[in-house]
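Quick one, C-alpha cells below. Sequence please?
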C-alpha cells in the first residue's frame, strides 16, 4: 500500500466508526427508543402531579419537550399510523389545559389527559393500557 491508499483506508475507517457512534446515540444508550423515553416523562408528569391534583393544589407548566411527541422515533417505524398526529394533538392540548386548570377543575382536567393517553394507546400500542389506567383518579 502506498501512503495515499493508507490515508484512504484510514479515512474510510474513521467515517465508519463515526457513523457507528451516531447510530448508537440515536438509539439511546439503554436501548430505549426516543419515543419510549418521552413516554416515560409524560407518564411521570402525571404520576408526580397526582397527589397534588387530589388536593386541588397542583401547579405546573407545559414541558416544552413534549412537543417532540410528533418527531420522536419509535422502536419500530410501523408503530405510527396515519391517525397518530391527531391523537398527539388532542393529547398536547389536554396537557396545556391541565397545567393551567383552576383548582376546582384539576381532577377532570387531569383525567382528561389520561384519557387522551388511552385513546392513542388503544390504537397504537395497547401494551401499557393497564398501566396507564392506574393513573386515573376515580370520582
Ligand atoms: C399520539 C399517541 C400516543 C399518546 C398520546 C401517548 N402515547 Fe404512550 N406510546 C405511544 C407509542 C406509539 C408508544 C410505543 C413507543 C415505542 O415503541 O418506541 C408508546 C409507549 C408508551 C409506554 C411504554 C414506554 C416504554 O417504556 O417502552 C408507556 C408507559 C406510555 N406510552 C405511556 C403513555 C402515557 C402515560 C401517555 C399520556 C401521558 C401516553 N403514553 C400518551 C403512543 C402514544
Amino acid at each position: 500500500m502506498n501512503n495515499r491508499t493508507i490515508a484512504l483506508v484510514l479515512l474510510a475507517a474513521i467515517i465508519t466508526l463515526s457513523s457507528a457512534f451516531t447510530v448508537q446515540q440515536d438509539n439511546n444508550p439503554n436501548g430505549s427508543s426516543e419515543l419510549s423515553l418521552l413516554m416515560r416523562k409524560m407518564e411521570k408528569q402525571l404520576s408526580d402531579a397526582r397527589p397534588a391534583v387530589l388536593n386541588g393544589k397542583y401547579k405546573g407548566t407545559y414541558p416544552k419537550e413534549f412537543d417532540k411527541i410528533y418527531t420522536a422515533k419509535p422502536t419500530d417505524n410501523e408503530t405510527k399510523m396515519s391517525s397518530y398526529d391527531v391523537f398527539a394533538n388532542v393529547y398536547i392540548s389536554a396537557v396545556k389545559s391541565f397545567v393551567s386548570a383552576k383548582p376546582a377543575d384539576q381532577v377532570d382536567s387531569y383525567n382528561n389527559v389520561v384519557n387522551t393517553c388511552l385513546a392513542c394507546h388503544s390504537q397504537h400500542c395497547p401494551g401499557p393500557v393497564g398501566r396507564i389506567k392506574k393513573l386515573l383518579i376515580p370520582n
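The chain has five helices and no strands. Helices lie at 3-27, 34-54, 84-99, 106-124, 129-133.
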